[in-house]
TrEMBL record:
This is Type VI secretion protein VgrG. It comes from the Bacteria. It comes from Campylobacter jejuni.
Length: 29
């Protein structure tokens, strides 16, 4: 499953690999 959340120009993708934040200063995998 993959969940994509877009808010305030930041894209958050949650999938089986973990949490990825794009467009911001944070990226965690």
């Amino acid at each position: 499953d993959c969940v994509i959340i877009k808010a305030g120009g930041v894209e958050v993708i949650i999938d089986s690999n973990g949490l990825v934040v794009k467009g911001g200063e944070l990226k965690a995998e």
